[in-house]
Amino acid sequence: MLLSPALAISAVLFTLGVAGVLFRRNAIVIFMCVELMLNAVNLTFVALAQSLGMGGQVFVFFVMAVAAAEAAVGLAIILAVYRHKQSVSLQNMNLLKDG
Amino acid sequence: MTGTAVDLIWLAPALALLGFVLNGTLALARPNSKTLVSVIGAGVLLAAFVVSVVVFSAFVGLHPEEPFVFRYWSWIPVGTLQVDVALQVDQLSLVMLLVVTGVGSLIHLFSIGYMKEDPGYARYFAYLNLFVFFMLVLVLGASFPVMFVGWEGVGLCSYLLIGFWFSEAANANAGRKAFIMNRIGDFGFMVAMFLIFWSTGSLDFGTVFTHAPTALMPGGRTITAITLFLFLGCTGKSAQIPLYTWLPDAMAGPTPVSALIHAATMVTAGVYLVARCNLLFAMAPVSSAVVAGVGALTALFAATIALKQWDIKKVLAYSTISQLGYMFLGVGTGAISAGMFHLITHAFFKALLFLGSGSVIFALHRAYHHTHSHEDAQDMRNMGGLARYMPWTTALMWIATLAIAGVPPLSGFFSKDEILTAAQARGHADPIWLVFWGLALSAALLTAFYMTRLMLYTFHGPNRTGEKEQPHLHEAPWIMTGPLLVLGVLSAAGGLSNVPELYHGSAWLHHWLEPITRPSAALLPEVHLSTSTEWLLVGIAVTTSLIGILGAWRLLKPERLVPARSAPEERGFARVLRNKWYVDEIYDALIVRPLVWLSREVLWKRVDQRAIDGAGVNGAARGARALGWANRWLQNGQVGIYVAVFVLGVLLLLWRATS
Amino acid sequence: MILTFFWIFGVIAMGSALLCITRKNPVSSALWLVVTLFALAALFVLLDAQFIAVLQVLVYAGAIMVLFLFVIMLLNLGRPGPTDIRGPVGLLTATVLAGALLLQLRVLSQSPLPSGIQLPPGTIAALQQHQGIVGSVANPLFGEYLIPFEIASVLLLAAIVGAVVLAKRKL
Questions:
Q1: Where exactly are the structural domains of chain A?
Q2: Which of C89, C107, C109, C111 to probe by mutation at the B interface, max B CB count within 10 Å?
Q3: d(CA C31, CA B530)
């Protein structure tokens, strides 16, 4: 009964996360939007766990663990980049450019 | 394989080809070995003539009913089409074989003397041998494609030989003009071949002529189209209206070339083609009328132009065109043997006329060489009174002149008369032929007139060459005069080969060609002229010739002529004739200039430069560069763009999943 | 009744998420994200995932977001500076792509679950009655999913080491 609204909310949250990633330049805010996306997925898992078994909730557990690890490492990277570029704006992070 | 000497037929073209290979090698390696070149060049021709005579005698002894076809190898086996490299030996091809090798040998001997001083001696004989090879392939071919190989080959050799002295732009242009006009005709030939294959399923002469009466409706559109396209090829190769203008220009080549190619052999290929396909032409009366009509008209038209030409070779060139018109009138009427008869006699006396004029030009050249003069050695206004210095040549040329004018009992009389009679007879069944007869008769009058004019201005009256040159004028060496003698005998006595029954003659050629002409004779209207009518026609023809000769003798005054450099311009109608009715100029304005404009402005500038180069080649490069520039943005290092592309990719995946 | 609450918290979640992505100040964004996380925790409770809800608050909102705020503080980004929202072109692209994505996801979520593997409603609630709220998660975690559990712990160790190494001034 709650499945369908839950999936709808999850879809909207995920989309908002994607939109945020696309139109923000600040690396940390982008990271936050990625966390938002992960949470939307968590919502989906939990909603489906009601119909398909406890495996959904266990998976959410793992997602959170991985999100934590990722947040730690990602923020460390941002710090390291900040030390070089004195900025966290995505515009300045163009080292992948050819030549 | 017949097991007789007829099997040796392949030797004739092979010998000519051998001559070409050897002389060609000598031309490249040791061009100064004139004796060796002469021996090879003339030797292979004489050997080929001997082979021809042997084959001919063997053939006569066999009394065959069907032609002999010797298949050597398979050339084009494609689907239902089977074309072999094959030679056909029958009455018609043997006649042509003898003429080509016989007259060809005489001209080769003449060339030895005529071209002696020329640096391109070996090249000349190489080309001449190659020409004979292709001409033999043409007349001996057993199918349309093999004949076409010869057809194209003689066109090529004509180009090579017309432009023999190619360092002069005018000569090279003449060669090019000949080749291009021939190509127009060749297009017609090819279209005809396609139509023939499409309607009869084969291209071999035997098969086509057996199937034609059933596969094609007589008088129908297909057969008319086929024959008209074939005739287009003939107008190109045999210089009839409208594709004749190349032949007078072709006089830029050496005189023996003019004699061999543009008088005796190559230009007669068209007549041979019509004779070979006589069944097809008999099945299409419209085309036959076109052939005969164009022939008659060309005969008269060219004769009018010849009246006012001053270059001796040009007069003979227009005379050739005119006489070819007679031949087409003959074969168009269905009188195949009459047309072929005139072909043979014309080969004799026209070759004699050309070679004789060659002797004259040779003498004048030598005289001018001694005095370092730059006068035109071919202009009749620089000649005159040469009978004193060159009696043999004069006499022989007179024989030829009387022959071409149709004075009995020389050969030309019999052949020309047969054609005129045939035309008149057919006129009783189809009245249009009476018009053709009238045209041909008028042409006969003019022929007698202009030929007498040529003789008068060249050999009689006072000499205009100049006092310093006169001591150097004398007869040509015997190597050149000898062949003239042989041709003179043939011109005089050649008529004996086909004396009509009217004179209680054997009409040998007529009966000899009967197996070839029988299928078509059945389709032609039956006409019989009474004996008195025939005698009347003979009388009319002879009278016309005599009027022409005597008229020229009385009206023309060689004393009034001045040498070429101080000669006045023509005026009035004479000017029109002198300028060949301005046909060349008309062609230039109507056809050549628009084509050149089209090529340059449209095809070159717009299509080639702008469309293909600009839009195509350069445009593709520019497009690639633009695409590259656009794609640069995909990898500029901006993470934001990477993310956007990433999302786009995910969207695409999802879309594929949901649809 | 539950449905009403569900929608209330759902709207709160969506609204605060929207606010999160549109604030200029990174600190504001972080705080709005925290609100979103709380709302999601409430949703988890309503979906019979109470343990997960608590974990969400403790770990996500409590630890991860705090980490974010620490880094924002370290980088001195709290003050208002030049805006970091992209210009009109970027906004347009983002809206278009996001809109397309939303449509796709709606389509996907409409498709029904295969009935063969669906459990009857109320199974989870019964399970939780039986084994307890924590027990119902712990049993599969240490049973079926033991190996992923151990790997996750190794992953966390690697993450810690990596974070320390990356953030040091001198290695």
A1: 3-92
A2: C107
A3: 131
Task: Check if the beta carbon of residue B423 is closer than 8 Å to that of residue B437.
Answer: yes
Query: Measuring CA to CA, how many Å separate B254 from each of A80, B261, B359, B636, C21?
Result: 96, 11, 12, 76, 98
Chain A residue numbers with beta carbons less than 8 Å from the beta carbon of B647 are 18, 21-22
How far away is chain A from the Cα of B629, in angstroms, using its nearest Cα?
A: 14
pLDDT greater than 60 at residue A28: yes
Yes or no: say if C133 and C53 are a contact pair by the CB < 8 Å rule: no
Report in angstroms the alpha-carbon separations of B113 from B42, B383, B436.
Answer: 12, 21, 42
Q: How many CB atoms lie within 10 A of CB B70?
A: 18
pLDDT digits (tens, 9 = 90+) for C92-132: 888 888 888 888 888 877 777 777 777 777 777 888 888 88
Cβ neighbours of residue C89 under 8 Å, at least 6 residues apart? none
Q: Are B8 and B70 within 8 A, CB to CB?
A: no
Q: How far is Cα B119 from Cα A81, in angstroms, rounded to an integer?
A: 89
C-alpha to C-alpha distance for B193 and A36, rounded to whole angstroms:
82
Residue C93 is predicted with a pLDDT of 82
C-alpha torsion sign, points B509, B514, B519, B520: positive
Q: Give the Cα separation of B33 and C140 in Å (integer).
A: 110
What is the per-residue burial (b if ≥16 Cβ within 10 Å, else e) of C81-107? eeebbbeeebeebbeebbebbbbbbee
- CA pair distance B263, B267, nearest whole angstrom: 6
H-run or E-run covering B6:
none
Residue of B388, B390, B368 whose CA lies nearest to B378: B368
CA angle C131, C133, C134 (to 5 degrees): 90
- Asked if C59 lies within 8 A of A68 by C-beta distance, the reply is yes
Q: What are phi and psi of B242, to 5 degrees?
A: -100, 5
Residues B204, B362: Cα–Cα separation, whole Å: 45
Alpha-carbon dihedral sign for residues A20, A21, A27, A33? positive
Give the chain B residue whose CA is nearest to the CA of C91: B644
| Residue-wise pLDDT tens digits, B329-362 | 999 888 888 889 999 999 998 999 999 999 888 8
Q: List Cβ neighbours of B590 (8 Å cut-off, separation of 6 or more).
A: none
The answer, yes or no, to whether residue B564 has pLDDT greater than 80, is no
User: In this complex, is the C-beta atom of B638 within 8 Å of any C-beta atom belonging to chain A?
Assistant: yes
Paired tokens of B309: 């030409």
Using an 8 Å Cβ cutoff, are A31 and A71 in contact? yes
Q: Nearest CA to B346 among B481, B447, B445? A: B447
Reported ipTM: the value is 0.90
Cβ atoms of residues B271 and B331 within 8 Å: yes
Question: Average per-residue pLDDT in chain A?
Answer: 88
Q: Tokens 């023509």 sit at which residue? A: B570
| Partner residue opposite C101 with nearest CB, options A18, A65, A73 | A18
B475-514, pLDDT tens digit by residue? 778 888 888 888 888 888 877 777 776 777 777 788 888 8
Residue of chain A whose alpha carbon sits nearest to that of C25: A29
CATH topology for the A3-92 domain: Helix Hairpins (1.10.287)
Q: Which residues contact B431 (CB under 8 A, 6 or more apart)?
A: none
* Least CB–CB distance from A21: residue in B635, B637, B643: B643
